[in-house]
Amino acid sequence: MRDDRVKRWIWVSLPYATFGVAVAEGVVVEAPPIAKWALGRDERKVVGYFRRRGAEMWPEERWPQWYLSPPAREDRAAQREMMHP
């Protein structure tokens, strides 16, 4: 079954795993196997659970820029050259 609701992603970073969960209308609608228990649960309760366990969490609009837009080929070549002259 396809879920056509508008989703937003939340990045969850724990000491042992980093992953994203998709939220639509305040409910978790997609999650990786490590967080499958969160499916169908209220977003606030899930966020509270992870925060109590020391997770850092960011909504999609605050994700690091390097994650949202990978560097262009030229940038990667320049980075390699700087690291290995």
What is the strand and helix layout of this fold?
Blueprint: E1 8-14, E2 17-24, E3 27-30, H1 43-52, E4 56-59, H2 65-68, H3 73-83
Antiparallel strand pairs: 1-2, 1-4, 2-3
Give the C-alpha Rg.
Answer: 17 Å
Kindly state the percentage of residues in helix: 25-40%
What is the tally of helical segments? 3
Strand order of the largest sheet: 3-2-1-4
Low-confidence stretches: none
Going by helix content, strand content and strand pairing, the class is alpha+beta
- Number of beta-strand segments: 4
Shape: globular
Tell me about the largest β-sheet.
Answer: 4 strands, antiparallel
Which terms would index this structure?
4 strands, 27% strand, 4-stranded antiparallel beta sheet, alpha+beta, 85 residues, 3 helices
Give structural notes:
The chain is of the alpha+beta class and 85 residues long. It has one domain (8-83). Helices cover 29% and strands 27% of the residues. The protein has 3 helices and 4 strands. It has helices spanning 43-52, 65-68, 73-83, and strands at 8-14, 17-24, 27-30, 56-59. The protein has a 4-stranded antiparallel sheet with strand order 3-2-1-4, with helices on one face. Strand 1 and strand 2 form a beta hairpin. It is globular. The protein starts with 7 loop residues before the first strand and ends with a helix. The model has no long low-confidence stretch (mean pLDDT 78).
